[in-house]
Amino acid sequence: MFFEKKILVGISGGIAVYKTAELIREFKKAGALVRVIMTRKATKFVAPLTFETLTENSVLLDLFPENPVSYTVHIDWARWADVMLVCPATYNTIGKLASGIADNALTTTIAATQVPIIICPAMNTAMYQNPIYQENQQKLVRHGYTFVRPGSGELACGEVGEGRLADKAEIIDAVKRVLYGRYDLAGKRFLITAGPTEEPLDPVRYLTNRSSGKMGYALAEQARLRGAEVTLVSGPTVITPPGAVEFVRIRTAAEMEHEVMQRLNTCDVLIMAAAVSDYRPAQYSDHKLKKKALTNSIPLVANTDILARAGKDKGNRVHVGFSVETDNDLENSQHKLLEKNCDFIVINNPHVPGAAFQADTNKVTLLDKTGPGSVYPLMSKTQVAEIILDNVLKLIKQS
Ligand code: CTP
What predicted TM-score, i.e. pTM, was given to this entire model? Predict the structure, then answer.
């Protein structure tokens, strides 16, 4: 996600400094190039060596070091970055920025940069609520700074309240949004399902399918990045859930049905990307069945078709289905579209190299009730997610 993006992280002196180390690890893992500037007070909490090791770069501490590499280092670093993140940002540093004070390497570099600046405040609740702080924040927002709202909870000082550094996932989201743009799904609630379901026969055996969950997770992540509130109901996968989404882990189709139906009335969009098992073993055995008991056939019963059930009382909600087909793709999917009362259905065919299950790419056709379907070339699942969300957005605007 951050491949070769240049993230300049400014660290000012608060107890939350240690959390920034973890954040930088995430940026690095996602391919970013990271440099760090610390205030002197920040170095009292965590030594620069930690950040030097994580970023594989020297940390900038002073504008006038004993052996300067460059005499315009604040300008060089300000120009180098694609985005600047101040994390944690203290009351003092935010106050200086709002007043145009540039008295250390961090504030001077910020004064010199023209790239987007994201501020992650972290401080005691009373300091955060101090009207002078609030005025400073508003002033910076007016000047185009992005603030990541601090979380509420127990603070290092023992008080409980607002002021705790925002969660890592929210900060990463903010950086992605600033780097990649759109925020056009803000205020919309998405319910997205992903992955396979598992239908147990006994404690060691179950029926399942080859779904990896990648498509549904990409949808959840992209919807979240574009500002939507997202609930991701997922069957068993090995993927880390995207940050800042409500994540509901389920195993069986019946559990997925329960979680979806509970949330249906409060969402604006339902996307059923999960490969739900159509059948489950008629009987579950608490004890491992001996192979002699498993002779020619296993009796099955049908699971509810969740999308079809949800489609019976659809109202203004946008419903998107997926259709996995190896033959007669269009004809079969047309039936599903109508039977399940979807706005559109995303067809993919596991026989196409690079498409459907397991792959990081997909090749899809989007089919609605009005036309012959739009065929897209092979592309990453993230790009497919973008296209699906663009189509959802058009429908939201029409309703
Ligand atoms: N679906 C569902 N509940 C089920 C089965 C499927 O909600 N019990 C949803 C899937 O999440 C998908 C769509 O219905 O969005 C189509 O799923 P697919 O497996 O392609 O088709 P089926 O309806 O199961 O029909 P078939 O297996 O015969 O192709």
Answer: 0.70
